[in-house]
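Input record, target 12 of the design panel.
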């Protein structure tokens, strides 16, 4: 019989202040609990009937949104296991720009299903193996579920149709208007090789007042400010872009000037004035009619610009300055002076218009149906969607929906294949993965079957959010019955519940991008596997000394 040596109680492995949690009960199940909390938080915001969350971030800014990417970005998650899920959803946002909520809900559901297996005594490595097998099978089956592709060449109608489901999940009821706007903007900036499409070329300007029906697309850029000088409208003009201040150069050192007579006093500033006039005359002689300045504009400079009939617009954001340079095809210059012909840009229309009560400056190229259009001029590289709405929060949410729409276009240009939406694809995958699990030997088959039931979370959540929990269960049962029939892969959840809560997704044109689905399944599984493979958490003491006690009021005030 072996001798049991008692453990020393005061054995210290880490520095003071370290936390060390290990074992199934403390580490693994606690992690699963934390992840479930996070997935339950965003779960109610999923789908067209998802509820909004009202968030106030650490700076006191208010957000009202159902967009999972925004919710997660603004809620500072500190639990290490939940952070793994946040990272997976951020990877999805970076890769596809859509289906971020699916990643979190799916990973959370996988971990909830694994909890039961762990309590029954299955080892985490068996569950991980089963989940990885199921993921590979699901991704292989997903390739066979594609029902249609985005037709080439792109038309406004086909693009708008493909965008509707993604936009409806954010702004249900406004999807027709928004998808038409995004499709129009995307076609305006579509390069000859669609694979080079850049989401950044679709800009959004939010102007309070009016309603969404008053929104429109401008082929060019819109700035929410007026030009600085008196010239407000120029057409068919050369444009110069300067990143420096349009002002008299200041010396770095302080100097003292001794003036002895009235003539010297008068001549003192005249030299500077003559120099400024010479510079702006050279710019005017180069044919420049519009100047975009990236910094301040001096009064004297403004005087000469007005005299030479040059319009000047101040753009303080360096990102916007870069975009303007792209729109007008100009080179940003770091010094004041006449630009060379290569550095000059060109714009068809530079005008100030009033939208609502706000005066805005528009730089745009003429459209083919406008008088004076010259087909030889280069096609615009940027389109701006001018959004109208009643409140700033609503406008922010509309902007997120537009951003999602633009990302869906980018994803579809990479891979134009579409799969049925409304939870139909997930149910079809669940059915096939379950059948695959039944044919496996060993303990991993339990995990594969749990994976199949976890895929059910998407249609279940859609039904719960739209119709309530009790009716949601009924709808899911009907869906399973319809999926059992031959050719029933396209049956999904009808959130409007017109008949029995189910519909054929392909008939209603509810289609999702295959690539976005594939990434969501892959990243959700990876996040769940990462959390399951952790068996202990070691947290060091946070850096920084003790917190300074907050004093009531100002320390200098007398009571």
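The sequence produced for target 12 reads:
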């Amino acid at each position: 019989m072996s001798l049991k040596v008692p453990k020393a109680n005061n054995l210290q492995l880490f520095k003071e202040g370290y936390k060390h949690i290990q074992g199934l009960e403390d580490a693994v199940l606690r992690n699963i609990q934390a992840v479930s909390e996070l997935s339950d938080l965003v779960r109610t915001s999923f789908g067209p009937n998802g509820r909004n969350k009202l968030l106030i971030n650490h700076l006191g800014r208010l957000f009202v949104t159902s967009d999972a990417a925004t919710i997660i970005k603004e809620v500072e998650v500190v639990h290490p296991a939940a952070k793994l899920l946040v990272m997976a959803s951020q990877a999805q946002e970076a890769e596809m720009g859509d289906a971020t909520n699916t990643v979190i809900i799916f990973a959370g559901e996988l971990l909830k299903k694994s909890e039961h297996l762990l309590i029954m005594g299955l080892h985490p490595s068996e569950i991980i193996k089963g989940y990885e097998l199921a993921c590979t099978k699901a991704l292989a089956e997903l390739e066979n579920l594609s029902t249609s592709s985005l037709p080439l060449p792109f038309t406004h109608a086909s693009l708008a149709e493909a965008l509707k489901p993604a936009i409806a999940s954010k702004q249900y009821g406004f999807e027709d208007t928004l998808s038409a706007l995004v499709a129009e903007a995307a076609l305006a900036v579509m390069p000859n090789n669609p694979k080079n499409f850049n989401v950044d070329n679709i800009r959004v300007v939010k102007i309070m007042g009016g309603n969404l029906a008053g929104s429109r697309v401008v082929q060019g850029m819109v700035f929410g400010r007026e030009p600085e000088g008196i010239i407000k409208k120029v057409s068919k003009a050369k444009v110069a872009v300067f990143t420096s201040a349009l002002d008299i150069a200041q010396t770095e050192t302080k100097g003292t000037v001794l003036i002895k007579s009235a003539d010297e006093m008068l001549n003192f500033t005249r030299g500077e004035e003559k120099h400024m006039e010479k510079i702006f005359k050279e710019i005017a002689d180069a044919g420049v009619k519009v100047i975009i300045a990236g910094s301040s504009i001096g009064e004297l400079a403004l005087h000469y610009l007005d005299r030479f009939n040059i319009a000047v617009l101040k753009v303080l954001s360096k990102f916007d300055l870069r975009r303007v340079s792209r729109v007008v095809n100009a080179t940003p210059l770091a010094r004041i002076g006449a630009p060379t012909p290569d550095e000059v840009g060109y714009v068809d229309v530079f005008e100030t218009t009033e939208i609502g009560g706000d005066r805005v400056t528009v730089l745009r190229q003429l459209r083919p149906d406008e008088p004076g259009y010259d087909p030889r001029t280069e096609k615009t590289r940027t389109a701006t969607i001018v959004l109208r709405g009643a409140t700033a929060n609503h406008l922010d949410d509309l902007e997120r929906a537009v951003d999602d729409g633009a990302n869906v276009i980018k994803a579809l240009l990479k891979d134009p294949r579409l799969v049925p939406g409304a939870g139909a694809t997930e149910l079809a995958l669940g059915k096939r993965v379950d059948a695959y699990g039944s044919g496996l030997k060993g303990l991993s088959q339990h995990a594969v079957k749990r994976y199949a039931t976890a895929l059910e979370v998407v249609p279940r959540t859609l039904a719960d959010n739209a119709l309530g929990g009790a009716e949601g269960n009924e709808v899911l049962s009907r869906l399973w019955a319809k999926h059992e029939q031959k050719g029933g892969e396209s049956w999904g959840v009808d959130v409007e519940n017109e008949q029995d809560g189910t519909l054929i997704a392909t008939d209603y044109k509810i289609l999702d991008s295959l690539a976005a689905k594939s990434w969501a399944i892959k990243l959700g599984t990876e996040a769940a596997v990462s959390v399951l493979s952790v068996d202990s958490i070691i947290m060091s003491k946070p850096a920084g000394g003790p917190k300074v006690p907050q004093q009531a009021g100002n320390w200098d005030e007398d009571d």
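DSSP finds 16 helices and 19 strands in the chain.
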